[in-house]
Amino acid sequence: MVSKTWICGFISIITVVQALSCEKHDVLKKYQVGKFSSLTSTERDTPPSTTIEKWWINVCEEHTVEPPEDCKKNDMLCGLTDVILPGKDAITTQIIDFDKNIGFNVEETESALTLTLKGATWGANSFDAKLEFQCNDNMKQDELTSHTWADKSIQLTLKGPSGCLKSKDDDKKNGDGDNGKDGDNEGKKPAKKAGGTSWFTWLFLYALLFTLIYLMVVSFLNTRGGSFQDFRAEFIQRSTQFLTSLPEFCREVVSRILGRSTAQRGGYSAV
């Protein structure tokens, strides 16, 4: 029982680690989220102090960049709360982070790409976070448009390029490399050969099928009213005759074609 639990846990860890690479994830690899990280902040008056909330987001491991102070290098999401009193330096009162070892789900809709992070430990509590990336191609960086933190759940909505699908040029760069055009040209030639081979194969199969049907129909007509054994014997006999006469038939066709060609060449020579 212990070994089964250990194996299941090990497999789940492998799955999570693999999912952190956006280029290997079925959904995330289609989006530009792997190109960007963002540090956004909101400020509100909390007299006699001022409270500043900062959110650091770096979803994909492909995008390597140093996180802000007090956040960890392997954080996908990190939240910092600073309090500033008049005439004094800022004091960090809260730090919550979601590292790349926790589980998450990905969902895509027509309006946004949603990433749900699950089970971040914060003191004695466990928190989830929901990141919603809305597409805006005209923006160079993601911007935080709304955020809520309630009932052990954090929800952030960002607008910018991360929620946009990759262009075809990006896909070609990832798939083809520097020799993408040559790869495309080389890939078209085998396709034509495959098409010709496929056409010949289908022609042969159709000829074989029609021959089989012809032999069955003739055998049935000749043994109509008889038993199945009679039909079977007739079919085998006609099939054998067909197979034995096929080489002779082919030779005769070839000889007629070659003979006609020779006669034509001879006629031209005489002139």
From TrEMBL:
<dbReference type="GO" id="GO:0006914">
    <property type="term" value="P:autophagy"/>
</dbReference>
<dbReference type="GO" id="GO:0031966">
    <property type="term" value="C:mitochondrial membrane"/>
</dbReference>
<feature type="region of interest" description="Disordered">
    <location>
        <begin position="161"/>
        <end position="193"/>
    </location>
</feature>
<feature type="transmembrane region" description="Helical">
    <location>
        <begin position="199"/>
        <end position="222"/>
    </location>
</feature>
<keyword id="KW-0496">Mitochondrion</keyword>
<keyword id="KW-0812">Transmembrane</keyword>
<protein>
    <recommendedName>
        <fullName>Autophagy-related protein 27</fullName>
    </recommendedName>
</protein>
<dbReference type="GO" id="GO:0000139">
    <property type="term" value="C:Golgi membrane"/>
</dbReference>
<dbReference type="InterPro" id="IPR044865">
    <property type="entry name" value="MRH_dom"/>
</dbReference>
<keyword id="KW-1133">Transmembrane helix</keyword>
<dbReference type="InterPro" id="IPR018939">
    <property type="entry name" value="Autophagy-rel_prot_27"/>
</dbReference>
<keyword id="KW-0732">Signal</keyword>
<feature type="compositionally biased region" description="Basic and acidic residues">
    <location>
        <begin position="166"/>
        <end position="189"/>
    </location>
</feature>
<keyword id="KW-0472">Membrane</keyword>
<dbReference type="Pfam" id="PF09451">
    <property type="entry name" value="ATG27"/>
</dbReference>
<feature type="domain" description="MRH">
    <location>
        <begin position="20"/>
        <end position="166"/>
    </location>
</feature>
<comment type="similarity">
    <text>Belongs to the ATG27 family.</text>
</comment>
<keyword id="KW-0072">Autophagy</keyword>
<dbReference type="GO" id="GO:0030659">
    <property type="term" value="C:cytoplasmic vesicle membrane"/>
</dbReference>
<keyword id="KW-0333">Golgi apparatus</keyword>
<keyword id="KW-1015">Disulfide bond</keyword>
<keyword id="KW-0968">Cytoplasmic vesicle</keyword>
<dbReference type="InterPro" id="IPR009011">
    <property type="entry name" value="Man6P_isomerase_rcpt-bd_dom_sf"/>
</dbReference>
<feature type="signal peptide">
    <location>
        <begin position="1"/>
        <end position="19"/>
    </location>
</feature>
